[in-house]
Amino acid sequence: MAYVEPIAAFFGPEDPGVVAAVINGVTVYGQLEQDMEETLESPTRRGIPVLICGADALPAVAVGDSVVVGALTYKVREVETSDFDPIAIVHLNNT
User: Fold this and answer.
1) 34 in a domain, yes or no?
2) Domain residue limits at 41
């Protein structure tokens, strides 16, 4: 039997740095961060917001869907998921 990481334990609403994002009417807990661009010298911040959350908590989401975090609304630019990683990265655009 394969081990499955209980990723929801890392994104609880009471955990520091975790935000509540509403995507298609579903509340998803995750971390709102700035995207990093890897270069040979060092990673640099691009200033593009991303929501990092558990893939199993993410509802069906498509490019252009709205994501509301507090008083801010973003649009989905891209969604990264993997069959091997329980984390989803939702790339956002400021609206």
Assistant:
1) yes
2) 7-94
Whether residue 74 is contained in a domain is answered as yes
- Number of domains composing the chain: 1
Structural tokens at position 10: 């890392």
What integer best gives the mean pLDDT of the chain? 86
Q: How far is residue 58's CA from residue 55's CA, in Å, rounded to a whole number? A: 5
Look up the CATH number of the domain holding residue 85.
2.40.10
Whether residue 32 lies inside any domain: the answer is yes
Q: Is 69 left (phi over 0), alpha (psi -120 to 50) or beta?
A: beta
The residue ranking higher by pLDDT, 35 or 6, is 35
Residue 70's Cβ-side half-sphere holds a number of Cα atoms within 13 Å equal to 6
Distances (CA, A) of 85 to 22, 44, 89: 22, 24, 11
| 12, two tokens | 């609880």
For residue range 52-90, list pLDDT tens digits in order.
Answer: 999 988 889 999 999 999 999 999 999 999 888 889 999
